[in-house]
Amino acid sequence: MARYLLTGVAGFIASRVAELLLDEGHLVLGVDNMNDAYDVRMKEYRLERLMDRYGFKFAQIDISDLEKLEDLIQTELQESEQEFAAVINLAARAGVRQSVENPWVYVDTNV
């Protein structure tokens, strides 16, 4: 059993990756900022499906806030002797129209 840090966990692809990892018996710390680039209810629905799963933990953090992200990782490492096997970065802001209107938000987020 490995432990993974998965960003963008409320998104379409990352939520499915989380399900697959949990199905394999791994632990998943999912991170998402729950932005409103598209309907937040879709993100909430995906998260609801994960929240009751054994081995899943969620933190609402924006990955561009490095201080909060570092604090989360340090806290998690102190609470558990198991390090992360990998960071799977699937966080990205979606929405073509919004990216044209405010490109720097996308440049900052889609690291």
TrEMBL record:
Pfam families: GDP_Man_Dehyd (PF16363)
SUPFAM superfamilies: NAD(P)-binding Rossmann-fold domains
Keywords: NAD
The NAD(P)-binding domain, residue ranges: 5-111
Iron-sulfur as UniProt keyword: no
Name of the protein this chain belongs to: NAD(P)-binding domain-containing protein
Organism: marine sediment metagenome
